[in-house]
Backbone:
């Protein structure tokens, strides 16, 4: 197997009560795992099997003949990035350079969070909401299905998965409640700051 399922950086129960262990078990152990398994099937015996996950995402983006490979690779990458965006004692606000950059782009951290929550809630159907650096300028936006800022020359700093599988077992249709829990209790601002420190 070329690509492997990265382990969660915390236990299945660690994000309770904001993300249930049952949700995390299915989300990581079934959904994320299925993208990795399918990707391995699709690239087996091809040159893509020798590439990094990020290289596969970039190489197949926008190529209609390889959409299934892109979808599974991008979903595998997005999920691998999403897990460390959360931490058991998360929430709060970034400090230092990231705080300054957010204030410069959005006016305040709260304004950025509000825009992030609105983008996540408004994404129709499946997708992701992101805080990303676009050549040093911070932006908040949503992407559809498996789409990822990696293919648009942007550097992701933070994401939340708003596919129903991310929240439905616990929140059912209440996606905004999941987004609020993510921002208030789970988001790992240090992970975002670490990502930002590498793109400046
Ligand atoms: Fe997901």
Residues:
């Amino acid at each position: 197997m070329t690509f492997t399922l990265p382990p969660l950086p915390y236990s299945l129960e660690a994000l309770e009560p904001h993300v249930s262990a049952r949700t995390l078990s299915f989300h990581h152990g079934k959904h994320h795992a299925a993208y990795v398994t399918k990707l391995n099937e699709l690239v087996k015996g091809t040159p893509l099997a020798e590439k990094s996950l990020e290289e596969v995402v970039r190489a197949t983006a926008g190529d209609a003949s390889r959409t299934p490979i892109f979808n599974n690779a991008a979903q595998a990458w997005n999920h691998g990035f999403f897990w460390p965006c959360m931490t058991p004692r998360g929430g709060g606000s970034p400090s230092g350079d990231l705080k300054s950059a957010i204030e410069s782009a959005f006016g305040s951290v709260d304004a950025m969070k509000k825009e992030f929550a609105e983008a996540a809630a408004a994404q129709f159907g499946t997708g992701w909401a992101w805080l990303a650096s676009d050549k040093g300028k911070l932006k908040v936006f949503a992407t559809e299905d498996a789409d990822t800022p990696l293919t648009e020359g942007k550097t992701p700093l933070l994401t939340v998965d708003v596919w129903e599988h991310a929240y439905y077992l616990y929140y059912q249709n209440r996606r905004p409640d999941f987004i609020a829990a993510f921002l208030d209790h789970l988001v790992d601002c240090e992970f975002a700051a670490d990502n930002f420190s590498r793109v400046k």
Q: What stands out?
A: The radius of gyration is 16 Å.
